[in-house]
Amino acid sequence: MNKTKLVIVGGVAAGASAAAKARRCNEDAEIVMFEMGRDISYATCGLPYYLSGVIPERKDLLITTAQFFKKRFNVEVRTRHEILSIDRDKQKVVVRNLATGDISEEAYDRLILATGASAILPPIPGVDFSFVFTLKTLEDTDRIYAHLKNKKPENAVVVGGGLIGIEAVENLVRKKTKVSVVEFMPQILSFLDREMAEVVHQHLRHKGVNIYVSEKVTGIEKRDGCGWIHTNAGRELPADLVIMSVGIRPNTKLAKDAGLRIGPSGGVEVNEFMQTGDPNILAAGDCVESLNLVTGKPMLIPMGSAANKQGRAAGANAMGRRIAVKGFTGTVIVKVFDLAVAKTGLSESEAVKEGFSPLVTYVLAGDHAGYYPDAKELQIKTIADRATRRLLGAQVVGEKGVDKRIDVMATAIYNGMALDDLLQLDLAYAPPFSAARDPVIVAGAVGQNFYVGDWIPITPAELHEKLARGDDFLLVDTRTVRELKKTGIIPGAIHIPIDDLRDRFSDLDPEKETILYCAVGLRSYVGNRLLAMKDFKNVKALTGGINSWTYPTEPFHS
Amino acid sequence: MNKTKLVIVGGVAAGASAAAKARRCNEDAEIVMFEMGRDISYATCGLPYYLSGVIPERKDLLITTAQFFKKRFNVEVRTRHEILSIDRDKQKVVVRNLATGDISEEAYDRLILATGASAILPPIPGVDFSFVFTLKTLEDTDRIYAHLKNKKPENAVVVGGGLIGIEAVENLVRKKTKVSVVEFMPQILSFLDREMAEVVHQHLRHKGVNIYVSEKVTGIEKRDGCGWIHTNAGRELPADLVIMSVGIRPNTKLAKDAGLRIGPSGGVEVNEFMQTGDPNILAAGDCVESLNLVTGKPMLIPMGSAANKQGRAAGANAMGRRIAVKGFTGTVIVKVFDLAVAKTGLSESEAVKEGFSPLVTYVLAGDHAGYYPDAKELQIKTIADRATRRLLGAQVVGEKGVDKRIDVMATAIYNGMALDDLLQLDLAYAPPFSAARDPVIVAGAVGQNFYVGDWIPITPAELHEKLARGDDFLLVDTRTVRELKKTGIIPGAIHIPIDDLRDRFSDLDPEKETILYCAVGLRSYVGNRLLAMKDFKNVKALTGGINSWTYPTEPFHS
Prior knowledge:
Two copies of one chain form a homodimer. Chain A is α/β, with parallel strands linked by helices. The first copy, chain A, contains 15 helices and 30 strands. In chain A, strands 3-2-1-7-18 form a five-stranded parallel beta sheet. Chain A has a five-stranded parallel beta sheet with strand order 9-16-10-11-12. In chain A, strand 21 (332-336) and strand 22 (339-345) form a beta hairpin. In chain A, helix 1 (13-25) runs parallel beside helix 8 (304-318). The relative contact order of chain A is 0.09. At the A-B interface, helix 1, helix 8, strand 21, strand 22 and helix 10 of A face helix 1, helix 8, strand 21, strand 22 and helix 10 of B.
């Protein structure tokens, strides 16, 4: 083997993966890994859970140590070292020892940039108060932990309802802190479509969290020994603890200064072998941009799972291998108290933006057979390309079995499956694990019903618009009186229970546009079929039923 | 629509699905569904759980009723009716009313056979004792339930360790019954490979279940007011309750007598549209044979999930549609006390039988991040076609997250994915749900390591054979002293902890075949790489490590 000198900048997920893999590809290489922080390879994704004690010990977060890396992989680790610049011509980096301030140079044959991403701190008055934090690094977490312990804050505000923000919310509530979220978008978890996010809003409120959407923080103030958040809605929220989680930004300064290309998404541009334009420099992890396999366009995937894969490939390829990272479907999951909330591929709004004409379906079904104990409902939204049938994306929200369905969907999307082909999957069935018709299978069946012309869906937004426009059509609620009393009826609808429809359809006008709805979409589909076969010219069914109807209803009196 | 007359024989999973779907395709059809039992559409898969009270009420098992089918779908249901014969020329069936004994005829335009399967009752002395049962129908279950209630059996024997047998075992143990299993094969759950079944054997024994494999029941005796089971090993087991679950057989007599083709697997032969050779007769569910998508050959899939899919297609196609059931990957899952045990595709032994040269990998990993509470280890075995890389099968055993991984594998196999391509999947990652490297991703990485030549595996069986033959090679245990003391060492191995290998390899002979092993395979892979790069000519790593070693070890003294 050759004595390649490999320098790695960054020692958390991508950097540590790269170092270990590089060693397994070249026993004789000299490998040096620099890390600005005190620790390497810690569990970034576990940080919020350490705050609440769900992860009880700080040492649980430390996946490995510099000592272990030396011993197992003969990798020299230099923590608290910052790389200041790269000299691509001379193939060396300039390094500052953060402990001593000493500056030195380090030559390389190959360089891997695993510089990660940083939390964005918006320039608003008061962000430098001692009770205002970001939550990105272990050191951030240590500071918040100490603040929680010493100050026992009564009120916390999380600014930004993204993944990290929402994980912070749950863990602060566990610490008996009263938590508010301020989000400048109209919803939290912006990767979800609006009506799916609404389920999460409701759950958070049910857990006592205040959510203020479409509001921007304008300043942070300290008054009477207490912190206060001000928003552009004129709101004033008490806050002894503020976590700013408005987003992260790839750390690309080193790469940029060295003249490497930064892609349109803001990450370092790399090919599928994690190579930058410079044949001796590779990059991996949160600092790079990745290929979105659905759109074919670059995107940022700041996930530990991506960083591990990319670091592994970069480490191998730095040693002359050709390992590809083909791309990502953009899979995301987050625990929100009792819910799991997940997405893969494109959301409906993303699909529209990408120029697709999406077919949207909703399925509400148990995670396992209803007759076996502890079954919980989960909701699946699928987005398909109407023209080609290709599954573009899925969102799943529920208490149990969410991760399973999103992983099946991610695997389906990776393989370019058609929505209706989901019906063909041979998914594992036994009552404790699934239903005879798994929710994924049902989604496939619903898709097939559409493509054979048996089911003509209308989305909640479309129906709402028709009602607002005052279109001339008949709206029929096919549920039971009991259900109607519970949720109310959509204004303007008449009530015909599904099992009465066969006897009563002759009272209706087959020439008139007729829209049926029920709880989740099964009965309206049955009714859609019945009326269509009785020569009703224009019948539709509300996809997702009342369950996906986020607009008002009115009380029902039988 | 036309007034097609559809007759359906059988009203449980496939039959009921067919009836409901047929109605949604033809409002004007006349649909008559005959069922021999008293109930239709009950939860066959839930029956064992009702015995123990996990499913508390009998009515929980009744998914729907004849009344509901009439009301919702205008389907006429005749329970306690047996179809005696089919006259294909005259397009009618001969029916016996089991309540009255009356015999009549029923004409059909289309006929769907959903006759299911029956439990096999082997012709051994004593099977007709009142304490000997099969467990296939709701009526079987009622009888066992009454026996448990009235006789409070102390000792039960389950004959046959298949899916139903093992589910019965767990539920009888919950009723405080002392349970023994007698299985004539060398292992229970014969769909698994031997070493994976061994994990289940151990778990069952740990739960107090006696397991007697490679033993055949020769007779059942009643003596001194107690039942006794005799086996060909001369064993005598007390049994106040015997459940015979040695297998099921498709009910094909009607089809056979009518001259329809029975396939090589023993089920009614149908095409992907569920059509038999007679254009007016379709068949679905446990009575048909299905296409195995991995082998391209027919097989029996007696699963509720398959019956639902096939019934739906049969119902539609009987009304002139063309809905295909493409086939199955043979996915199976079963709960065994705290374990979930699952398989999809081919086992290693099935792959060999099919003429593949299988590449076998094992992964032992947490269901989610180890630093997040309650992570449990699960074991994945993958079987790939060595030549083409195609994933052929997977087996997963563990306490949590098993269903998720098997469903991802089933989706991967359905799509013809290569083993190493699993590495590319973008699976959902957050600490409560997965690890940064999901076990499925690890399986893909292991496969890639093999295909690029970085990892040369040897299976436990191959190593065992080499040892037995007395081959000249060096066997190295790379684990820690503590681990060695816990499990013992493979006889003949020397001990070099992985982290000492870099300093000590020069004492070893690079010309000699060297086989490394560790706990699960990670460290032996690292050592495999190190030695290979130090010009060792022939290095291998034991796949699955000591964890998959089912042969003896000897105590280790440091």
